[in-house]
Design goal:
- The strands form 2 sheets. A 5-stranded mixed sheet has the order 4-2-3-5-8, covered by helices on one side. It has a 3-stranded antiparallel sheet with strand order 1-7-6.
- The chain has helices at 19-26, 58-64, 75-81, 128-135; strands spanning 8-12, 34-41, 44-51, 71-72, 100-103, 112-116, 122-127, 138-139.
- The chain has one domain (8-135): Alpha-Beta Complex (YbaK protein).
- The protein is built from 4 helices and 8 strands; from the N terminus they run βαββαβαβββαβ.
- The protein is an alpha/beta fold.
- The protein is globular.
Length: 144
């Protein structure tokens, strides 16, 4: 975000292993927390971003990516894709990792989003429109 000139607030908090736990730590609605879910199809990896309470529909993700099907990335793949991040604390900014970013429209209800910042004890709050621009995000329904 800093390299792109985007304003953000960085916070430290108690360990939050899930997006819902991050919402509790930051005292915000889970609908404000950007939860990344990495999938793999024949064209490679992509980052699907949903609000914390939502669940990814793999068929919708495949359709949004013009794939016949996709699967969730494995833990070992995530460790290779995000070597500088704690497992499960990846920031939802696919472009940083040479991935397409697709955002579920439910996440677009708020002016700001909260996200993990690579560690389970650090998060960022950023204006949603700035985050979408940095990500070059595509918007498509992804949630069940």
């Amino acid at each position: 975000m800093q390299q792109r000139g985007v304003s953000y607030e960085k916070h430290s908090h108690e360990i939050a292993f899930t997006s819902q736990a991050l919402a509790q730590e930051e005292n915000v609605s889970g609908w404000m927390v950007a939860k990344p879910v990495v999938v793999k199809g024949t064209h490679g990896f992509a980052m699907c971003v949903l609000p914390a309470p939502a669940r990814l529909d793999l068929k919708r993700a495949a359709g949004a990516l013009n794939e016949s099907h996709v699967r969730l990335a494995s833990e070992s793949e995530l460790q290779q894709l995000f070597p500088d991040c704690e497992l499960g604390a990846e920031p939802p900014v696919g472009v940083m990792f040479q991935m397409t970013t697709i955002v579920d429209p439910q996440l677009r209800q708020e002016d700001y989003v909260v996200m993990q910042a690579g560690k389970h004890t650090e998060s960022l709050t950023v204006r949603r429109s700035d985050w979408e621009t940095v990500c070059n995000a595509h918007v498509a329904p992804l949630a069940i």
